[in-house]
Amino acid sequence: MSDIPHEPCVVKTVLQEGQSTTCTLTLDLEHLSMRSLLIDGMQKLVDFLTEAQGTDREGAVVVDLRVSAARPASQPLIEGFLDACRAVLHSWVLENGAAVRPANAMVSLPPQSIARQQTREYFTSPRGQFSRGSFIDLRSVIR
Amino acid sequence: MSTILVTGATGGMGSMIVSELTENGHAVITHDVRSTDALVPDVTGDLMDPAVLAELAQRSEDAGVSGVIAAHGIAGAAAIAQTDLALTTRLMSINTLSVITLFDALEARLHTSAGAFVAISSQAGLVAEAGNGMYCASKFALVGWAKEKSRRSPVPLRLLCPGATHTPLLMQSLQGQADARGVSYEHVLQEFESATPAGRFGEPAELARAARWLVELSEPSLVIAPVTGGQVLA
Q1: β-bridge partners, B191
Q2: Would you say the C-alpha torsion B164, B168, B171, B173 has a positive or negative sign?
């Protein structure tokens, strides 16, 4: 993947009133320890959601995870991390579903075949398509 | 008679698991982070400490351990917005990373003895909860890891996912969730009880029997067992 930066864990957030709030969490597992992935990666996701909570009330909240790993041995850890992300996102929606508008939470997760370095992006969520506080896990769609 | 390693052996669930195993003819090596009046574990210390892990691995090798039940863990309820790095570090280190590290340290021993590795996950590892996000994440991570690891390891992997069970850990968690949501402890307690089809919380002894069943089970290679009074089935 040519767009993976040198930093092992990078978060780029785009916060715009009235539009989608996007968090791009880029994880380069070639340079991330297990501890960094499960602790620093998770905390960055939490920090993003906390920031988004007070900013966006109109568009979708999109978490775009980009994971790079050439080592198949990392796969169990990656799956654990992705499931942990699902838990945090779902908890966040449960905590804030009543306070935010429809189509407000969506996560774009990479497909399982990370060892083949595949990554996709899903940024758009048609407003109103999902019910209040919906949580969409796109892994089932993009596999 | 087989020898089983039990971590978290002084805890509400761990101590019951130790009793269940010994009453049914197993020898047990016990571990916990510290001793209590009731039990002085065979090995004490932080599982993330390489020296402690090495001692556990050596003792397991010497005793021919043929099963592991990782029953250690902590609660840590907080809303996502109140989750700081210190809480994330504690929950992910103790509930997730130390379990994975323990498995890695004992995988070869268990492969030799055809033994199983059982970890106590949680109902919160299957369904997320408000006011308990990072705890859920630490348990979800175990489930995701185990599903994929079982495809790559010869060692049988089993996750026990208890629902609400009468342990000090649960009471601590419910209080934390109540605080995080700004409701009373009794309110959260009532929610949990009314949401359980069985109409009651589980008892540690019941979970201990389930843990023994899982560690004795020879097949299949992966079992994720919710014991939740019917609240979460899969």
Answers
A1: none
A2: negative
Beta strands A21-28; A9-14: pairing state: antiparallel
List CB contacts (< 8 A) between A43 and chain B.
Answer: 83-85, 88
Return the residue of A nearest to B88 by Cα. A39
B206-215 pLDDT tens trace: 999 999 999 9
Q: Could you tell me which of B10, B4, B19 has the C-alpha nearest to residue B206?
A: B19
Nearest chain B residue to A79 by CA: give it.
B144
Nearest Cα neighbor of A107 from A19, A50, A45, A55 is A45
Q: Is A27 helix (H, G, I), strand (E, B) or coil?
A: strand
- Is residue B159 a contact partner of residue B112, using CB atoms and an 8 Å limit? no
Candidate from A84, A90, A95 with C-beta closest to B141: A84
Across the interface, of B97, B128, B148, the residue whose CB is closest to A91 is B128
pTM of the model: 0.83
pLDDT, averaged in runs of 10, over chain A (143 residues): 42 52 63 80 84 58 60 73 82 66 43 32 30 35 30
Q: Are strands B43-44 and B67-70 parallel, antiparallel or unpaired?
A: unpaired
Q: How far apart are CA A44 and CA A56, in angstroms?
A: 18
* Cα–Cα distance, B80 to B99 (Å, whole number): 24
- The pLDDT of residue B222 is 94
Closest to B4 in 3D by CA, of B213, B223, B234: B213
